[in-house]
Structure formats: C-alpha cells, structure tokens
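Feature request disguised as a bug report, sorry. It would help if multi-protein outputs had a clear separator. Right now it looks like this:
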Amino acid sequence: MTADKTRLGALMAEAVEFSVRHVESGGIPFVGLLVADDGWVSDLGVNLVRETGDPTAHAEVMAIRKAVQARDRSSLEGVTLLATGEPCALCYRVAASHGIAAVRFAVDRDTAAAWGFDYRAGYETNRLPLAITARHLAVERSLVPFTRYRDLHRSDFTTHS
C-alpha cells in the first residue's frame, strides 16, 4: 500500500473520533476500516461481539466483510487495514487470508492491555506474525476511546485489595 501517510493519518483520526462516539453509545473502543491505493475507503467496522454473540464480529473483521461485499471480491490485495487498536491474532489472520499486507494501528496491543483489553495471549497461540507489515500510526487523541470507556465503566476497573 502506497497511500499517502497524511491521508492515512486523517482517516485514522476520523476512525478514532468515531470510536469515541461508539464507546459513548455503549460499544467498545475498536474500529476498523480499509483504504485502497485507488482512493476507495471502506465503511467503518465496529466490534459487535457482545451485541451479536458472534465471537468473530471484531471491528476489523466487520470492516473486511463490508469491504468484500462492496468491492464484490474476496481478495483485498493492495488494501491497508486501519485499526484504532492493534488487531488481535484472529483479525490478523482474516486480513492475511484476504490479501491485506499492511496494517496500521493507533494503539498497540500492550497499551490496549493496560486499558483493560488484553488479548495478547492469542498471538502466542496463533503463532504470529504473518506476512503482514504492521506499524503504529500515531494520531492525536488515540487513547481517548479507551479513557472514555474507562470513565463510563469505572466500576469495572476498580481493584480490590
């Protein structure tokens, strides 16, 4: 993917702001979208695992499902996946199986874990990394969806001594 870094940064910033709104409406702080070299941008995907009971309804998978339908093909070769939180092992595998070779994320797995979303064990179990270039894409306010989630669910984050 050779999309302009400025454009990717702007799209990631929009995804982060959408993530804040998603959290405020009851969701969790994960949003995904895809960007192609030809200018095409997918619809946003949000994590719907709790709402649907589908354990594969992660934000990135939902965005990939929408992209495959919109582009009328199963291959998304040459497309970059943007994610507000670093994808889990499942999402990396789904991305790789659809030809996505580049992933950019606003918040890495260790930071997500520090904010209560620890999915790092899946990487060891699923023997990552794959043939995907994954890099952090710094944007302002990247932690806001996570801090907003914590603020709204403060009782979930209290520690008992």
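(second protein starts here, but nothing in the output says so)
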Amino acid sequence: MQTSSPTPSDTTTPAPLPDRAPTPVRTPPPGAHALVVGASGITGSALVNQLTDAGWRVTGLSRSPVPGSSAEHVAADLRSLASLRDGLADLHPTHVFIAAWSRQETEAENIRVNAGMVRDLLAVLGPQGSVRHVALVTGLKHYLGPFEAYGQGDVPDTPFLEDADRLPVENFYYAQEDELFAAAATHGFTWSVHRSHTVIGHAVGNAMNMASTLAAYAGIQRHLGRPFVFPGSRTQWDGVVDLTDAAQLSDHQIWAATTPEAADTAFNVVNGDVVRWRRLWPRLAAHLGVEPQGPGDEPQPLEQQMADADGAWAELVAQHGLAEPDLRRVASWWHTDADLGRDMEVLADMTRSRLLGWAGYVSTERALLALVDRYRAERLVP
C-alpha cells in the first residue's frame, strides 16, 4: 500500500516545552503545620507558595509577609532569643524549614550569628514537643569554603559528592549543621540539609539574586549603549556549571521532610542539567535586547562596571515606570561576581536523591528566561 508524505497541513506544531518537570503535589501529613523561616526570600517565598498550594497550614517567619500569600505570618528577630520566645510561643509547628542567614563581615561573625540563629530557634521550638522534621538550606560553600578562604586549599573534585569530608576551615554552614544535629538528638526530630548552588527565583531585596542582577545589568548597559560583557573568568565562561531553581529547592525540602527514607541526610540540590555560559550568555543577551560580549583576559566585576549605575537606574525607573527605585534591592553585584568570577569548575552530584526516588528536573536556560520575563512583567527590571 502506497502512502504519501505528510503535507504541512497534515502536521501540527509541537507544543512548547515546559521549563521543568511537573512538580508533584505533596499532600501534607495529618496535622502538619509548616514554619518557614526566611519566608520573604528567594527560597522561603517559593516554599511558602508551594506548601500553601498543596494544602499545608503554613506560618512564615520574616520581617514582612510574603506578598499575595495566604500563609500566617510571624515577625520575630532571629538574632534575639527573647523575640523568638515571644513570637513563637505556643506555635507548635510540625515541620520547620530554615532558609535564612545574615551576612557578616567575617566568618567568625557569620558563625556566631548564623549558628546562633539556628540554636536559638530550635531551643524555642524543640521543647514544644511538636516538631517532627527540620530542613536546613545551605550551599556549595560546604565544599568550597567560606568567602574568606573561598576555593583555597584542597577543594574536592567535581562533581561535589555529598559524603565529602568537611574542609579544615571554620565555616558557618558546618556550625549550623552542628546546631541542627544537637537539637535533633535532644528533641527527637529528624533533619535534612539541602546544599543548593546559586539559587534563581523570584524575590525583591534579596542579597543573592543572579537573575534580577543580570536583568538589571542588561537594562543599564542597553540604556547606556554599552555591550553586555560577561563579567567573570574564562574558566566559568568555558566550563560547565549548574544552578538551583527555587521551586526545585522547595519541592526537594518538602520531599525530604515527608519521605522517611530521606531522614537524617544531607543532599545536594541542583536543577539536574548543566550549562556553559559561553552558550547561555548570547541567548540571555538576545532575550534582554543587548549585544553580548565574552570575557576579557581578567574578570571585569560588576561591582566595578556598575559603580556609577545609580543615575542610569533612576533614568530607567522614570522612563519605564519601574516599581523599585533602589537598585540595591534588585541587583546584588557582589554575589554574581563571586559566582561568575571563580577560576574553577563548580557543580554538584545528586546521587543520594536519585537513589531515593527523587525525579525533579529543571531546564536552567528556560527557567532563567521565564524568570526574566516575570521580573519584566512586574516592572522590576526594564
């Protein structure tokens, strides 16, 4: 039997691919009440939204409520034991998600402040007797070392393995983990640690926000008629790297908190793909309407390139009716410089999650471009 080839009218255009695998609806366990610490940040706000959408009772602890969320809200100072006692008295959460930290000038201060916040928080909640699980978000500085000794000494080979030994340096991530482990042993709850890498997501005023930083940088360069120069190292430009989408990180925490086999385990959490900036940068530039340019012989940090950008931003705010006049609440030059300026490959292995059945996957490129579109739609970037 003879058949004819399909004509254009016989075919249909494939539907656009999504930027992530479908996220399961993780139904709350009976009586579940989630407390999200750092609820207004990139990680915390995504977690609040995902939990509420799944039907959990959610309380967010932050300076201000998550916009548009139906979650309950507690305002308490994480650096004050008395404030935590007052704010969390009789709250009785069953699941606690810690996604907050406070950047200090030295690692010794980072340890004192950030480990102290975990210790005091669990000293208040633990005796209430209701906590079943505590999830702590950290990052790949677990393997790279703190900013004061970043990438120095014998850094483990990539991809970073979750069972790697701690580095022989002081690190506030280690101190936070130790406070978590001690409280779990005292009060009888399970725990999980989630080591993310360069979280991209939606938030305003966050100290570590690459997506809005690059979008703001592009807008300023376009306004000034300058190219979109890759500010980092040639190693980052040519090598492979992974990132962590905030929704991926949120679902991973909920999965670990509700999966008995995942209890008392530290995990790496990344998108599941790898990208090269030399491929992604021109695509991002085209999406943002700027002329891409690769790296120079040495990094060209954004903190230097954007040292005089406040005037240009004020003009963009007036021209486009932008919602945030304070550039510092949109762009975190220092953090993006640290990520893109590294002279080493950085990516993480997710074997532990995969072997326990975790199937989350995000296309980093698609998620980044979709996030830029969201920021534009909300008039946060031009």
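Even a blank line would do. Unrelated, but nice: Residues 210-241+275-346+362-378 form one domain.
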